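Tokens for chain A. Residues wanted.
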């Protein structure tokens, strides 16, 4: 997700596309941006690693309809 020159919003969309097969909605963008901002002090790689772990633990990823 950190490759390329995308901004955080585009990276959030790319993460949602890869994991859930859809773009993030407005609320998910806000939550993602807030999460990354709160964890920015740990560095971009650590913040994105933690965010990816969070997305992988979501019910939407774990449960198939």
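Reply:
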């Amino acid at each position: 997700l950190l490759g390329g020159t995308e901004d955080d919003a585009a990276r959030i969309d790319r993460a949602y596309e890869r994991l859930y097969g859809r773009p993030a909605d407005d609320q998910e963008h806000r939550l993602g941006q807030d999460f990354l901002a709160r964890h920015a002090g740990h560095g971009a790689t650590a913040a994105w690693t933690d965010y990816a772990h969070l997305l992988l633990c979501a019910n939407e990823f774990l449960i198939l309809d």
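The mean pLDDT is 90. The radius of gyration is 11 Å.
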